Amino acid sequence: MSNTYKIYHISAKVKTGNLNCASSNNRYFKNSKKIRALGTMLHVKEIQAKSVLNTSKVFDYCLNPYTGCQINCRYCYARLFMKRYSGHKEAWGDFVDVKINAPEILQKQLNKAKRGTVWISSVCDPYQPLEATYELTRRCLKKLVEKQFPVNIQTKSELVLRDLDLFQEFNEIEVGFTITTDDEKVAKLFEPKASPVKDRLSALAKIHASGIKTFVFIGPLLPGNPEKLIENLAEKADMIFIDKMNYLNSIKGFYHRFGLHWETKDKFFKEYKERLVSEMLKRKMKFQTLF
User: What own/partner pairs with CB < 8 Å and gap ≥ 24 does 203-207 have?
Assistant: First the structure.
């Protein structure tokens, strides 16, 4: 296991110990346990994984090149158990374990696995900022396309456009974005390190225009203008999924801290869903509600 900790693509200053320096790509901090970036402590550790292709209740398999996620969505269900599972003491969003041998382990597992759909990813964003340097998701996709395993990708990052060339080599692939609101301020509050909504929409449009099957997951439903959101998604997504805020009790205090009380009520989710559905029916869009 490597003890090298790294931080990349941070526009603010980076501090580690008593060292102050302007950040730059490929800057290494040897033997450092903590890196302060954008006001938070980010713990990045390179690890050797024993397995990366695991069975899933949603698809046949799931693949997570990273443990932990920089996107740090306030509502992520993974924050409820990943600290305990991973042994980390840091808060969710403040640590990422990088499975540096993921492509090699995946290759070995694919040689023995029965063909099935691979979900990338179930408990991290496969295109979180560190992926721009490590390229683990891209390297894993290269292994998957060799075997032509069907792939379902879900992200909140425009970095996914980098791999458009690989997507076009798959016989079966779907690429989707989680877009929970049309309101940039709300998105920034709940999804602090995700790409802006406008950039996700732009990336979605480019992928769809390339002939790749696309989807959008509107979940959890966050405050915004549902009619405007559907207008923005029109002719960009082949399928839309809608879900409410699950595990609401674990995040209700966060809502209330910002004066969002009505938005935690069952009636809010019901009315918001009805407005989304009404607009999609008008536009003859394909969708599925999950509540």
Answer: 203/158, 203/160, 203/161, 203/177, 204/177, 204/179, 204/233, 204/236, 204/237, 205/236, 206/161, 206/164, 207/160, 207/161, 207/164, 207/167, 207/175
Token code pair at residue 190 = 């709940």
| pLDDT in the model for residue 134 | 98
Which residues, including other chains, have CB under 8 Å from residue 169's CB and lie 6 or more apart?
145
CA–CA gap between residue 151 and residue 148 (Å, rounded) = 9
- Six-digit token pair at 53? 């292709």
pLDDT-derived band of residue 249, with 50, 70 and 90 as boundaries? Answer: very high
Q: Mean of the pLDDT values across residues 88-93? A: 87
For the chain, what are the domain ranges? Answer: 1-42, 48-289
Task: Kindly state the average pLDDT of the residues 185-207.
Answer: 98
Lowest-pLDDT range, 11-15, 67-71, 213-217, 248-252? 11-15
Q: Is the pLDDT of residue 228 over 70?
A: yes
Q: Which of 41-50, 128-137, 194-203 bottoms out in mean pLDDT, i.e. has the lowest?
A: 41-50
- Any idea which fold 48-289 has? pyruvate-formate lyase- activating enzyme (3.80.30)
Question: CA 100, CA 2: separation in Å to the nearest integer?
Answer: 10
